Amino acid sequence: MPVKKKEYEIPLAPIDRILHRQGAERVSEDAVILLRNFLEKIAQEIAREAVDASKHAERKTVSEEDIKFAISRLQRIICTQLNL
């Protein structure tokens, strides 16, 4: 039975382009994969917080304000954990 590969939402090529546009001459595939995985985890956490906020407000639609709230909340959590 074949092993199912984990599917990702963010393709590697745009991550590679971002790194090159920021001045990298060469980028390892491992570096691109690590950055993609990190960005996806952050995006999932923001999405989860935003969905919770919209449900709390008894709405089905996630709004720009829900995303802003989720980003702000996660920033506070991260800064608190890092003692910033």
Q: Would you give an account of this structure?
A:
The protein has a single domain, classed as Histone, subunit A, CATH 1.10.20.10. It has three helices and no strands. It starts with 11 loop residues before the first helix and ends with a helix. The mean pLDDT is 93.
The topology string of helices and strands comes to: HHH
Kindly give the count of domains: 1
Largest sheet: none
**Total strands:** 0
CATH class: Mainly Alpha
Spans of at least 5 consecutive residues whose pLDDT stays below 50 are none
How many helices in DSSP terms? 3
In the CATH hierarchy, what is the architecture at level 2?
Orthogonal Bundle
Average per-residue pLDDT, rounded, comes to 93
Strand content: under 5%
Distance between the termini: 49 Å
DSSP helix fraction = 55-70%
Structural class: mainly alpha
CATH superfamily, called what? Histone, subunit A
Shape: extended
Radius of gyration: 17 Å
**Within the CATH hierarchy, at the fold level, what is the topology?**
Histone, subunit A
List the helices and strands and how they pair.
Elements: H1 12-21, H2 29-56, H3 64-81
Helix pairs in contact: 1-2, 2-3
State the main characteristics:
84 residues; mainly alpha; Histone, subunit A; 3 helices; 67% helix; cytoplasm
